[in-house]
Amino acid sequence: MTTQDARGLVLPRYRRDDVDAHPPLLSPGYKSTVARAPRHPLIYLPQRLTEVTGPLLGEGRLGALDHDLTRQHDGEPQGQRIIVHGRVRDGDGRPVPRTLVEIWQANAAGRYRDARDTWPAPLDPHFEGVGRALTDDQGRYQFITVQPGAYPWRNHDNAWRPAHIHFSLFGRAFTQRLVTQMYFPGDPLFFQDPIFNSVRDPKARERMIARYDHATTAPEWALAYEFDIVLRGRESTPFEDEDDDE
Amino acid sequence: MSEQLGVMPAQTVGPYLHIGLRWPDGPYVVPEGTPGAFWIRGRIVDGTGTPVVDAMVESWQADPDGRFDHPDDPRGARQPALAGFRGFGRSETDGQGWYRLLTVKPGSLPEPDGGTEAPHLALSVFGRGLLHRLVTRLYFPDEQAANAADPVLGSVDADRRGTLLASPASDGFRFDIHLQGDHETVFFAV
């Protein structure tokens, strides 16, 4: 690689998230953060080729029924069927097309199909709790699943996780990679959950709560929730300013 | 200028990440048998020295020519010459806190100002107790001249730089990740 190849490279640049967008890594109410959150401040990394590109994983990763968690086994899973859908956009409102969305969740009784989950709620032989979908050209995705149950954990006295679905998204660049959780409106367990409440900005917390969407319900079959996801947007200022920020 | 939308906050992958994020081919950035392929293995430990058994590492890297098959590589997206090269790897930790990735060494990368970045992997670390992913970089110990000129390594205090260097191992390299403690790995804000 010669230096001549490098001159004049113009890279897109992604906006830095504002400090309250994400939870602080050290959130002592969530006990597991205490020994795991780094103690040194994060070091600012100017975005270079590695950071502005990212894996573009497509159809090859999807099976025909990966988006429908109610039809992955011979029998029907227990619980209330729900349709979960939404749009993935960046902070400028642009759709994020053809990006892989992965979800995983507990069954209707609040139990995960994982050997580590040992609380005595029933396992459902017809529910795996794992889904995958690709956004379309407008950034839209859809899953069919069942309403997950709440479950206890040992973080504090009588601790319960509000019902939630885990979401994992790649976006279009390494900088946009995001793992989050979708919550349900009106959950009475929010007040005591340090993971939900680790996000300090109340408006940012609200974004993690799906909207009940009656228009998308399927009569005599499924309720529906809309969950729009916004990934980081791009800077409009030119790359040449990057070094000035250091 | 249009109004900016608020980003979705990150949340932990929780203790059951294995059910949703395990891919059988996850650790294979390149297929087994690829010429020049080697293993990167490492252990993730917390501030008490305990292995983190419910974590996951993802890697992203250039191909051996220093290119990305991606529209935002300003030199143009280009399919790698190496058959089966994915650029991306994913490995959950096992019962002793080990992750593993089979890959090849990426090429050097040009910088907009004419400099060069040493071969490196970008790593994301997810886990129970991590409310947001952690980002770090892995550099190679046999690239001393390139490492010495690398702008990212150069921006890190000399006494912590070593946490970004893999060490030689019998079948490739070892790269441990210390979330906390005396040897805390350098993590970046991207």
TrEMBL record, chain A:
Question: Record's SUPFAM superfamilies?
Answer: Aromatic compound dioxygenase
Look up the record and give one Gene Ontology term from the biological process aspect: 3,4-dihydroxybenzoate catabolic process
Keyword match Oxidoreductase:
yes
- Top-level taxon of the source organism: Bacteria
Q: Where is the Intradiol ring-cleavage dioxygenases domain?
A: 84-112
Look up keyword Oxidoreductase and say if it applies: yes
Tell me which InterPro entries the record gives.
Intradiol_dOase_C, Intradiol_dOase_core, Intradiol_RC_Dioxygenase, PCDO_beta_N, Protocat_dOase_b
- Per UniProt, which keywords does this protein have? Dioxygenase, Oxidoreductase
The molecular function terms in GO held by this entry are:
ferric iron binding; protocatechuate 3,4-dioxygenase activity
One Pfam family name is Dioxygenase_C
Q: What Enzyme Commission number(s) does the record list for this chain? A: 1.13.11.3
Report the coiled-coil segments: none
Q: Which NCBIfam families match?
A: protocat_beta (TIGR02422)
Name the family.
Answer: Belongs to the intradiol ring-cleavage dioxygenase family.
Record-given protein name: Protocatechuate 3,4-dioxygenase beta subunit
TrEMBL record, chain B:
Q: Which residues form the Intradiol ring-cleavage dioxygenases domain?
A: 38-180
This protein's record includes keyword Oxidoreductase: yes
Q: Provide ranges: composition bias, Basic and acidic residues.
A: 64-76
In terms of domain of life, where is this protein from?
Bacteria
| Molecular function as annotated in GO | ferric iron binding; protocatechuate 3,4-dioxygenase activity
As for family, the record states:
Belongs to the intradiol ring-cleavage dioxygenase family.
- Name by which UniProt lists this protein: Protocatechuate 3,4-dioxygenase alpha subunit
Source species: Micromonospora ureilytica
Q: Which gene encodes it?
A: pcaG
